[in-house]
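Entry: Type II secretion system protein H
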Amino acid sequence: MSSRRSNGFTLVELMVTIAIVAILATIAFPSFQNTIRSNRIATASNEATGLVALARSEAIRNKRGGGVCGSADGASCDGTWSKGMLAWADVDADGGFTTGEVVLRYVTVNSAVKVTGPTGATIAFDGRGRRRAADAQELTLQPASCDKQPLRRRLTINASGQLNSLKETCS
């Protein structure tokens, strides 16, 4: 027999280590899911806020208008807010997205995020950056599964075109 000691792990030590890691992962997984949901909503909220700000600044810059709408394909406004959002420059100053309008940016929405916006409408701005619609317009973002947590975001665009963000409990 050799008097040298071998380096490494025994099979028993390796199995104990794997069991401990599995137990810790099982304990941490539910709280990690809440963190993932929270980050998804924060990301979607930031993207929506950025699109509204981009459309409003472009409306002021070109003095004709601009807007944001729900879009599944990035080429037309179809009111599908949960698939994606499109910001455009209103070239003909009619307040709506039509053929020939300049698409400023298109953002797809994560399938785990539920977005609701103005029904069949766009969020449009005039040449001075004010909201074109007479009634209040808002976007609501929340995870597909929320469990009564304060993860819902309500983005309200006021008459002057400014955006207000509220955190709410999911319904």
